[in-house]
């Protein structure tokens, strides 16, 4: 059986201010995802975690290497259909013009499908937004509300792979836990694969079964989450875990 | 008007240049070049028109309109540096507008099918279409720049190029038509347009001059809408790559 997602020796240049190519932001990134799972992507800032997710969603093009979804390379697939299956949710939630409802219905409008009001309501409730006026102009929402609406907007597309870029970064603890719980439920119901960039080690430990540690311009470690936190395989990994643990203790 | 009388109008230019020197505006050189260019261009076109009107040969008519469209497209495309393939798209939009306008004016017998009517009216239509096209491409780039996030959200949700660019296109079309619509609203109240003024000065009946001016105003609005919408259809895809990603916009928006 073909893997859900296969990444082979992926590399991406970083661009400096003059739009000139500079050395690789990351290279030699390889991984195989055989069954639906939740993967945390952690690592110091500037290692290209967001760029990796954007590249997997084809919002940026790989400079080298290949990505296959269900055995088909991105080169042979219409990027539009690719993104219907592999959806990126940005850290900075951008609302489209119109109401909250307009935003939630975007995926169904784009693909001529019926808007599942019940599902939308359920997800709003699970993310503690049950009381939100859906007629409200989306641009008037708070940062945390926008982030949750953007997430639900993507979930309603029902992608097979969800690429989450610090989607709880603007949320308070309670809302963040609610979103985590909702996403775990969603995964159990829909069998969605999630690749989740986070800076919160506890969140990574709570939500994921597998952890990717990005450092030194590559995917340095790819381990079961429990193993990574118990005993990182590399010195960089150990330092990173120690550093974040001391930060959390403060 | 005698040439002597005409040369007296240079006094206006000299006065402007003196003011520029006095106020240290540094515009003398530009004013001088502008004066010489406009005088030569206008005198030359006067003689060309005189020749064409006499010979009444269609090929000259086609040639002069082609040159007008070519220059207009090239000029409008300067508003979009680095956008490959934009010149011919603008040219095609302006050409279509011109053909539709002339087809309507001639087909409905609104004007006579002679170079005396066709050339000046074509010049005005093409000139207006050029301004609209320049505004459109300029605004399109700004809109894409400021709506990057919106476009990426739509793309990440599986939008087609046309779906991702729809709102941006709509806003740019609207923007490019504002000057035409505004001048339509205030025409006759704020300014007496060039064509009408010219006809009145040349001794035409003001009411007759006004009729032609109304014709111009209406066809300008029509041509602005056609040029802008057509150009938006022809050019939105240039803002995205083959793989449906936003293309970086080269610097130097003018």
TrEMBL record, chain B:
It is found in: Membrane. Keywords: Membrane, Transmembrane, Transmembrane helix. Its main location: membrane. It comes from the Bacteria. Belongs to the UPF0014 family. PANTHER family: PROTEIN ALUMINUM SENSITIVE 3, UPF0014 INNER MEMBRANE PROTEIN YBBM-RELATED. This is Iron export ABC transporter permease subunit FetB. It comes from Paenibacillus glucanolyticus. The lineage of its organism: Bacteria, Bacillati, Bacillota, Bacilli, Bacillales.
């Amino acid at each position: 059986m073909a893997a859900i997602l296969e990444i082979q020796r992926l590399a991406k240049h970083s661009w400096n201010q003059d739009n000139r190519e500079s050395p690789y932001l990351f290279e030699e990134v390889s991984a195989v995802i055989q069954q639906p799972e939740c993967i945390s992507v952690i690592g110091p800032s500037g290692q290209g975690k967001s760029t990796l997710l954007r590249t997997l969603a084809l919002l940026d093009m790989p400079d080298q290497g290949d990505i296959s979804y269900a055995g088909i390379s991105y080169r042979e697939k219409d990027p539009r259909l690719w993104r219907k299956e592999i959806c990126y949710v940005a850290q900075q939630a951008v609302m489209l013009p119109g109401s909250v409802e307009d935003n939630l219905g975007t995926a169904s409008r784009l693909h001529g499908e019926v808007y599942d009001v019940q599902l939308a309501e359920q997800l709003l409730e699970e993310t503690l937004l049950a009381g939100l006026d859906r007629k409200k102009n989306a641009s008037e929402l708070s940062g945390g509300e926008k982030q949750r609406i953007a997430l639900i907007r993507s979930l309603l597309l029902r992608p097979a792979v969800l690429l989450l870029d610090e989607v709880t970064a603007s949320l308070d603890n309670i809302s963040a836990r609610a979103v985590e719980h909702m996403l775990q439920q969603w995964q159990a119901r829909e069998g969605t694969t999630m690749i989740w960039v986070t800076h919160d080690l506890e969140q990574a430990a709570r939500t994921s079964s597998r952890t990717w540690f990005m450092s030194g311009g590559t995917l340095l470690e790819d381990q079961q989450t429990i193993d990574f936190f118990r005993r990182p395989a590399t010195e960089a990994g150990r330092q990173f875990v120690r550093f974040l643990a001391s930060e959390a203790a403060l | 008007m005698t040439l002597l009388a005409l040369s007296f109008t240079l006094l206006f230019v000299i006065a402007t240049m003196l003011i520029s020197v006095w106020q240290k505006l540094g515009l003398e050189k530009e004013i001088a070049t502008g004066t010489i260019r406009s005088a030569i261009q206008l005198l030359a076109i006067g003689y060309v028109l005189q020749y064409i009107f006499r010979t009444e040969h269609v090929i000259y008519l086609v040639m002069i309109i082609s040159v007008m469209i070519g220059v207009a497209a090239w000029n409008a495309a300067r508003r979009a540096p680095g956008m490959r393939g934009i010149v011919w798209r603008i040219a095609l939009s302006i050409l279509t507008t011109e053909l539709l306008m002339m087809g309507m004016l001639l087909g409905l017998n609104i004007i006579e099918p002679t170079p005396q009517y066709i050339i000046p009216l074509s010049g005005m239509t093409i000139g207006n279409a050029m301004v609209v096209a320049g505004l459109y491409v300029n605004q399109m780039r700004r809109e894409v720049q400021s709506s990057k996030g919106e476009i990426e959200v739509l793309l990440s949700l599986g939008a087609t190029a046309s779906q991702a660019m729809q709102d941006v296109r709509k806003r740019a079309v609207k923007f490019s038509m504002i000057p035409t619509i505004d001048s339509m609203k205030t025409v006759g109240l704020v300014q007496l347009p060039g064509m009408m003024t010219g006809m009145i000065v040349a001794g035409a009946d003001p009411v007759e001059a006004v009729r032609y001016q109304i014709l111009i105003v209406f066809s300008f609005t029509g041509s602005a809408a056609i040029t802008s919408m057509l150009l938006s259809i022809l050019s939105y895809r240039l803002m995205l790559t083959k793989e449906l990603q936003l293309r970086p916009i080269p610097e130097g928006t003018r």
